[in-house]
Amino acid sequence: MKRFRLNQQEIVFAVFAVLFCAFSILLKGFLTADNMLTLLQNVAVLGILGLAMAIVVIGRGIDLSLIATLAVPAGLVLQMVQNGHSLPASLLAASLLSIGIGLVNGWLIAYAEVPPLFATLATGLFVAGLGQAALFQLDVVQWNDGMAGFERLGQGSILGIPTAIVMFAIACVVVFILLRLTRWGAYIYAVGDNPFAARVTGIPSRPIIVLQYVVAALIGCFAGLVMAASVNSMPTRIFNSTLIYDVILVVVLGGIGLSGGRGGVVNVIIGTLLIGTMLNGMTILDIPYAGQNLIKGIVLLIAVITDTFLNPRNEETAQQGDI
Amino acid sequence: MVRVHRFAFGSIAALTFASVAVPALAQQGLDEPFQKPFREALAGKTVAYVPVAMNFDLTEGWYAGLKKELEPYGVKFEIRDPNWNTNAGAQAVTSLISEKPAVMVIHNPDVQTYAKLLQRAENEGIYVIQINMGSAYRSSAFVGANWIEIGERQTEGVIKACEGKSNKIAIIQGALSAAASAYTLKGVENVLAKHPEIKVVSSQAADWDAAKAKAITQTVLKQNPDLCGIVGFWDGMDIGTAAAVKEAGLTGKVFLATSGGGERKGACELVKNGSFDLDVSYDVPTQAAQMAGTIKWLLSSGAKPGSVKGSEYTTLIPITKENADSQTACWNLSDLKK
Amino acid sequence: MRETLTRLRYRYWPDHLLGEILSKRWTETAIPVILLLIVGFALSQSLEHFLSPASLADTARQAGEIGFIGLGMGLVVIVGGIDLSVGSMFALTDFCALYLLDVLGWPVPAVIIATMVFGGLLGAVNGILIGYLRLRAFITTLITLIIYRSAFDLLIQRYSNAIASAFPDIPSWNFIGDGNVFGIPSVALVYIAVAIFGHIFLTRLRPGWHITAIGGSRRSAYNSGIPVRRTIALCYVASGVLTSVAGLFFAARLGTVGGDIGVGLEVIVLTATVLGGITLGGGKGSVVKSLVGVLVVLLITNGLTAMNARGGANRMALATILLAAAMIDIRWQKNRTRIISKVYVAPTYHALPPSPSTEIGKGGPFEQNDKLRDVSLIGLGMIEAPEDVILDRNDVLYAGSRHGDIIRFFPPNYERMEVFAHIGGQPLGMAFDRQDNLYVCIGGMGLYRIKPDDFLLRSDRPLRDGRVAGRWAGSTRQRPHHLLRHQDRRHAYRAARAQIPERRRSGQRWAVDIVRGDLRLFGQTLLVRRTEERSRRGRDGQPAGIS
């Protein structure tokens, strides 16, 4: 009899399904189309960030500077428009800044061989400091009339679906094409699975690593623009929050292991759906914020423990450094 | 005989003129005896400023205002910026105590962390002025907003706008553990106790984060489309709340009351364009001026630090559509820095 | 002058000593220590009060607290994991200590013990999940971070007012928080004691070796019989206990349960750990590395704050210093052995006399000899590997070749050549005697004598070595193809069959031409001789039709 195996992706999906059904039955107003859209909209930005992190994690890295990449380039756009520059020029400046961040990250990790955790931590700190010191006057950069029309990137709806969700869907499609349909995506998987073998077979592993971080930074910038458009400002203080842990949770819980080489867009979507459902349900239940976090943590812990019971860590193939 | 009188009269007149003229020619000003000790009391003294963080409207405004008032008198004005890190702030205060400035201006992140340190500071002869967020230890002076009053005013505004409507309101708190948030909540509760017909459908903390505030508000609005008012605890965060209200198309139907420092771009403009319906401002330039005045008074009085204590609660400026356009309701950071 | 300096440098510079020092294990920490010294020096120059006892005591106090957490994190990283929940554990144990002291009113020793037990329990949750259930460390401690932080938030909502209003004035508690012993803060003393014990534990005691072994390779450690799961779980428990100690000292110092205690602390401690040189992945690390990392990070953050730097500049400077230090450290770790091997070589210096001239015409002993410039070449391309050459009485030049032939070149031009004898092997040295016999040393075969006109080969008794009579080691080398023709071999074989016992070795047919005195391989010798000897046919009685 074939043993019924679930991998982590499926376990998380099962948990999500259970929660979803429970909330639909027990909560009035959960299973309405409006609420579903609200649910997705609340986590759309988190999902876009999860896509960026997923690319990097598949390549066996990690990117803790994503929050800085979300906040600072988008804030730069707002600040420049506030100071009188034109919108296209500001967008160009922001893209160049985020490409620069990605290049620095990639160079440090691929060529200077600094561990990714450390390197991206330091770059994120640097970029946040740069924004605080040189780019922004106040840490909440306000909207202004020069940005008129841009808020459609995050507010309003397209064909009845809130724009933020559409942006998330666009990002999903782009990342899917990159990862599954292009050669570079295959290289990213190869580099993440076994970097030494990849290099020996002739894959340009170091430029691929740089590519990962540049793409992640660009997606982070895009997420920042969507967020700025949706709340009509850029609260750069978000760097101090623990949002980065939520992003990592979305990615890892969805099934993309931190040791790289596995996973895809579907995993990010599943992780996002789980967290979104939990948050939405708990807000409807009016559970206080600290209680929400506690419940979120416990549910995630149960999911991870279940996964370990069903898929014990294989000591033979576990690599050193596989924390 | 008449000639003598005339002569006498003339000579007396001449003498009188002479006696008046002589002092008038060598007239000297009167020395005001108190301004010299005042200048000596202030010159060369160090005032250290420890905010929660720089780079936001409140702390930048206080900094600019204090600098403008104190530096002309030769006061050295220093900053220690812990950048939202409580531990770093405690460390900064500790090292300041050993450096012994004349005055410390402290913006507390919570009620307890600095309490013992401030007590120690005043025992060692440093005046301590606390701004806007106080600690458990009351020091020489407290200048700041009365958070309970802010909560009360906001709730009263919301309740008045809710008259005749659904009587459902939502509360978007700041961070649960922040003293300002907790005090404001108390003020809200004070007023709600008097109005039992008002129902609070949601009271969540958004952690001072605009995106979270937007998410919470969206969910609440979807569940309660007939919501009549929202009480938000900080205008920097309630931009998100306003965006959610706008997306639901309910701007003008949901009364959003918030509070903040009153900077033009963050407060008056947003009230003007309808994002906020009421923004209770604690008027940062006035607070800075009050602090400067207190410092001048304390330094020139020579009182022993800790021997005299007092409080200065700020007069709040409620900004609504009526006065959002006026010159005095809000302030510009750029003007303050000049 | 330059020479004197060079001589002094090579004579007296202690290369060997330097190499010895660099080979020591503790020089792995060289870069962080140098960075610490630079930072300390820079701060002492720019801040007047930096080196004052009060300020140093303050720094030591804060360093002690974070140092405890750094020790715990270092232990966990060495064993191959990571602990992201230290910040939340710090907050929770801080709360626990203050709650027990202020709200429940327990005596100080009980508070200390209870808090440490509580910290151990928090760590044990991590330990069981990661050690026994074998969850992944990163994600597990991330989740426990969230759980513990939310538990802390809920608890302080209820109790923070009660704690805030209490001002306990117990002397022992105050000593823990603010006390000094001869100017050294109490925290620092306890930290030094624990650090010394920790160092001995990691480097000299068996459990410490077990920890390093597990970090190096979990599978191998398991196979060696080390109780892997238990050790890993205990490491996390130790991390919890050490964090609770830090929380105790913090609670005594500030007495606060503010909302953002410990937020971001795990990042600072992780930065300090990695900066000090304890690599994520495990197996390497020490107490000193942890301490140095903590001191560097602390000094930089506090120093920049005290220098009136705004928050943004503070962060940028910290990030730049961290990155620079990390890059230099990685280069140092990678190249350390290479540098050592270069430094270790300690040549001495010896001044050589001026070199003699080699120019032509100067007549010195090293004068370039171009006497062979205009020679004409003999046998270029026609003979392979002539190991020795010799001239006979008639100026005929004899040389061996790799194919086992003795080839001779005829004067006066030495352009005409013929195979004089074919022996096999590799002819090496040759010599003539007075009777014109050619003696040849054949590599691998022995000493052979070739009479000028009489046949000779190695006969019954060897001349020199002990080879068995009659055994010829035939050459197994490949013949040039154009010199070998099968038909000729067959003919020669039939014709010469009667002549002598032939030896077969590797299929080669050998015959001895008794008359001629050659030992030849069929076909080849004949063929070569054919061109030369057509004119001499008939004289030596070659079988007809052979050539």
Word description of this protein:
The complex is a heterotrimer of chains A (323), B (338) and C (547). Chain A is mainly α and 323 residues long. Chain A is 69% helix and 3% strand. A two-stranded antiparallel sheet of chain A has the order 1-4. The mean pLDDT of chain A is 86. Chain B has two domains: 35-145 and 284-307, Rossmann fold (3-Layer(aba) Sandwich); 147-281, 3-Layer(aba) Sandwich (Rossmann fold). In chain B, helix 6 crosses helix 7 (179-194) and helix 8 (210-223) packs parallel to helix 9 (235-247). Chain C has helices at residues 2-12, 15-23, 30-46, 53-78, 86-103, 108-132, 137-164, 171-178, 186-204, 206-216, 218-223, 228-254, 265-276, 287-306, 311-344, 486-496, 524-533, and strands at 180-181, 184-185, 389-391, 397-400, 405-409, 417-422, 426-432, 438-443, 446-450, 504-505, 508-513, 518-521. Chain C folds into two domains: 2-46 and 55-344, ABC transporter involved in vitamin B12 uptake, BtuC (Orthogonal Bundle); 389-481 and 496-537, no CATH class. The model of chain C is unreliable at 455-487, 495-507 and 511-547 (pLDDT under 50). The longest helix of chain C is centred in the middle third of the chain and has 34 residues, at 311-344. In chain C, a hairpin with a 7-residue loop joins strand 5 (405-409) and strand 6. Chains A and C meet through helix 6, helix 11 and helix 13 of A and helix 7, helix 11, helix 13 and helix 15 of C.
Summed over residues and divided by their number, the pLDDT of chain B gives a mean of: 85
Low-confidence parts of chain A: none
Biggest beta sheet attributes of chain A: 2 strands, antiparallel
Strand order of the largest sheet of chain A: 1-4
CATH architectural name of the largest domain in chain B:
3-Layer(aba) Sandwich
Largest interface comes to: A-C, 53 and 58 residues
List SSEs of chain A in N-to-C order.
HHHHHHEEEHHHHEHHH
Strand content of chain A: under 5%
User: According to CATH, what is the topology of the largest domain in chain B?
Assistant: Rossmann fold
Report the C-alpha radius of gyration of chain A, rounded. 20 Å
Strand content of chain B: 15-25%
Please give the largest β-sheet of chain B: 6 strands, parallel
Helices of chain A, by number, come to 13
Which strand order spans the largest sheet of chain B, edge to edge or round the barrel? 2-1-3-4-5-11
